[in-house]
Design goal:
Blueprint lengths: L14 H9 L7 H17 L2 E4 L2 H5 L12 E5 L26 H8 L3 E6 L27 H8 L5 E6 L5 H7 L2 E4 L19 E6 L2 H11 L13 E4 L10 H16 L3 E4 L3 H30 L5 H11 L3 H15 L2 H5 L4 E4 L20 H6 L3 E8 L5 E7 L5 H16 L4
Parallel strand pairs: 2-3, 2-4, 7-8, 7-9
Antiparallel strand pairs: 1-3, 4-6, 5-6, 5-10, 9-11, 10-11
């Protein structure tokens, strides 16, 4: 059993409980915010999830808190602007002052009553070089990346929800390693103004929470979609386990098999599929698109502040600049041709069940784990939902990923909520 930092428990109230108590006058508008700041003060010296915490006096001066997320404290990954807070992109040595405006997603959450309490640690420019964050379940194991601080802050009970981003596996992998719900919406569904884009065709804003219900509450604010009803026929899930570039650990394979059995008992059809050939093509497409766009987004940073960024980042820029425009256009065409090809590839399936990671959080803090089970969905732009379902014998979280069709985010969340309840024996 790995050494535990502290008893890991979620924030004492859910997103919906906090907002309801504030709206009904049962709790003061800033009661949960004060509890969040106290938890950060108590725990973050060990977890190191925060790069900046708001001035309590400034938060106490807030007025007119109301709306569907009234009084809900949130964390914001440090690649998105929060007014009057610095944005450092995971590089503390970069010069810069406080942001003048909120990023669009932060502003929308604030307008709904949420209160940003600080900026969470990110890997350097949301890439590979890890930040200082530790895994709340085992401090010697990675929390994942690049949205490490946001996932760890929710897992350690410092906030009930936090924003992150995903280019490859930066939302789903930390959710898996830290044992929280992680939701990556469809590409293009959440406005990205006020976020440092590194990959125009891939970057997606998502969020962490302790329950799928709380993820749904945030989606109601950030995603302008109509709710899609459940299928009239039995729910069908395509089970895609194997990946040509990774071996799934025995514990994760066993947990997915358990999920399928529980769901089958409850009338869900789980059908194995083999998409290994297309997986290899999509992994190549992700690699080419990511490096080509990353290099051009970060080239100005390296040119001006190359002395304060990591060798890995400088090498990635050089790699991307060497990718030809022709190869880049070819892979964009692959991305476009497969993004809307759900029906042909998966027949009548409503969802895809697939691993979130090859296994639980690896030991060590010099790397953030393998995103091989995430990149194909990032390049397709399909929405992904990580469901934490169990712990392995070493006490590390394990779970699985549900993938939905592009633009069917709310449907994925609604179905994922019911499926998660069946696995964790939670009531409706």
């Amino acid at each position: 059993m790995p050494e535990t930092v502290m008893p890991v428990a979620p924030f004492p109230l859910s997103v919906q409980q906090i907002s309801r108590r504030v709206r009904e006058g049962v709790a003061a508008p800033l009661a949960a915010v004060r509890a969040s700041l106290a938890a950060i003060s108590e725990r973050d010296s060990v977890i190191r999830a925060w790069s900046h915490v708001a001035d309590p006096a400034a938060l106490e001066a807030l007025e007119g808190i109301g709306g569907p997320l009234a009084g809900v404290p949130i964390g914001v990954k440090d690649v998105m602007d929060v007014a009057d807070m610095p944005t450092r992109f995971g590089v503390s040595a970069l010069p810069g002052g406080a942001a003048r405006f909120d990023a669009c997603c932060v502003g929308m959450l604030r307008a709904a009553g949420a209160v940003p309490v600080g900026k969470t640690v990110t890997a350097e420019f949301a890439f590979r070089t890890p930040g200082a964050t530790r895994n709340p379940h085992a401090p010697g194991h990675t929390p994942g990346g690049s949205s490490s601080g946001s996932a760890a802050a929710v897992a350690a009970g410092m906030v009930p929800a936090a924003l992150g981003t995903q280019t490859g596996g930066s939302m789903i992998r930390p959710a898996s390693f830290c044992g929280v719900v992680g939701f990556k919406p469809s590409f293009g569904q959440v406005f990205r103004d006020g976020m440092k884009l590194t990959c125009e065709s891939l970057d997606t804003i998502g969020w962490y929470s302790n329950t799928v219900e709380d993820a749904q509450a945030i989606a109601q604010v950030l995603i302008a979609q109509d709710d899609i009803g459940e299928p009239e026929r039995p729910l069908t899930i395509a089970v895609q386990l194997d990946n040509p570039n990774a071996a799934l650990c025995v514990e994760s394979r066993r947990e997915i098999a358990r999920a399928c059995e529980v769901w089958r008992v409850n009338g869900v059809r789980c059908q194995p599929v083999d998409a290994s050939a297309e997986t290899a093509l999509l992994l190549r497409a992700h690699d080419v698109i990511m490096h080509y766009e990353f290099a051009r987004s970060l080239m100005p940073v390296v040119a001006r502040n190359g002395d304060v960024v990591s060798p890995a980042l400088r090498q990635a820029v050089a790699h991307g600049l060497a990718v030809s425009a022709g190869e880049y256009r070819e892979m964009l065409a692959v991305q476009a041709s497969l993004r809307h090809d759900w029906r042909a590839r998966y027949g009548g399936a409503d969802l895809i069940l697939t691993p979130s990671t090859p296994g639980p959080a690896p030991k060590g803090l010099s790397h953030t784990g393998d995103g091989v089970y995430n990149k194909i969905w990032s390049v397709l732009g399909w929405p992904c939902l990580h469901l934490p379902t169990a712990f392995n014998q070493a006490g590390l979280p394990i779970g699985m990923q549900l993938v939905g069709n592009w633009g069917e985010d709310r449907r994925l969340l609604a179905l994922g909520r019911k499926l998660h309840h069946l696995l964790t024996q939670q009531g409706e």
